[in-house]
Amino acid sequence: MAANTEIRTGSPADHSGVQFFEGVEKLLEIWFTSTEDGSDKQRDLRNIPRQKWENLLKIVRCEIISFCQNDQVDAYVLSESSMFVSKRRLILKTCGTTTPLQCLEPLLSLVEQYTGFDEVEDVFYSRKNYKRPELQISPHQAFEEEVALLDTFFEDGEAYCLGSVDTDCWYLYTLNKEKCSQTKSDPDQTLEILMTHLDSEVMSIFTRDVCSSAAEATVKSGIEKLIPNMVIDDFLFEPCGYSMNGVMKSGTPELPEVSIIYPVVTHVRKPTSFEGMLHDNSHNTRARFFLRVV
């Protein structure tokens, strides 16, 4: 979700009386591994029961709306964006006043209990600067507070800020790879795009005034044609806003050995986000994927 205003019940109003919704997405990505000898074949984050994920998301202040999957990833559309669970990686992407970092302690316990993974191999936490940070819930009001919490879990974390803190900037927290143990990582490439000042007539597709269902919005917007052979799980909010996850069907000839996850939540006249992930180190595959999206 990448917009900053929307009419939603219970959202605080700005000075003009318009209900405010913080569309900046908090992105938490964690890769797990095990310190024990032996194969990781039986270790899988997807072994965690659905009810446990639902309970965890209550801490984050969101809930599961729908679900789809392929042989590489379980994809959940959430009330506040998306969650993706694969063998060793969890991606939790939420907006509004959600609190993803509050779930870290119970998450790590769940992972060890149900999967056998007992170590975090890598972590990424990132977000754009908020429009109204004072409305966020601790520890998310300030990046410094978020970093302080993350440092209590990860010894080798480092924080970065890209851009000017006075205008638009991007915050990132990740592990220092030089300090961490070097393990063979899975092929993984991410393309993330944030678009602003989009055509208001096109964006009106993502309102209940124009489309009666998510499926209609997906077709009218052309999203269904963006990536061939993608299984689409979409949702149209009231009165406006749209979110979808897409996972690739196995054996896709156009993009071999690729798993796509693609969350979009759009609000009229406000920014839109796209994220796609490739499990492929081929430069040709990455180039074809990028050109298709652009």
Automatic annotation (TrEMBL):
It is an enzyme of class 4 (lyase). Its cofactor is pyruvate. Keywords: Autocatalytic cleavage, Decarboxylase, Lyase, Polyamine biosynthesis, Pyruvate, S-adenosyl-L-methionine, Schiff base, Spermidine biosynthesis, Zymogen. Gene3D superfamilies: S-adenosylmethionine decarboxylase. InterPro entries: AdoMetDC-like, S-AdoMet_decarboxylase_euk, S-AdoMet_deCO2ase_core, S-AdoMet_deCO2ase_CS. Pathway: Amine and polyamine biosynthesis; S-adenosylmethioninamine biosynthesis; S-adenosylmethioninamine from S-adenosyl-L-methionine: step 1/1. It comes from the Eukaryota. Belongs to the eukaryotic AdoMetDC family. This is adenosylmethionine decarboxylase. It comes from Neodiprion lecontei.
